[in-house]
Design a protein that fits this description.
Elements: H1 2-10, H2 13-56
Length: 60
């Protein structure tokens, strides 16, 4: 029984899969937060341009 327990303690194949999973999760969180920030910045810029263009038109 102690040999089986010792062999399980030395097995690291599951640890590598968990590490890759954590790395993939961190990368996806970084991509999502970056895309959100970029989207908010673009939205603000387009709203600014819309305000400037709408204000420059003369109603007829």
């Amino acid at each position: 029984m102690t040999k089986i327990f010792a062999r399980l303690m030395k097995d690291e194949s599951g640890a590598t899969a968990i590490e890759y999973g954590l790395i993939a999760a961190l990368i996806s969180v970084a991509l999502i937060s970056g895309a959100t920030a970029l989207g908010k910045g673009l939205n603000a810029q387009f709203n600014f341009l819309n305000t400037k263009l709408s204000g420059s038109q003369n109603p007829t």
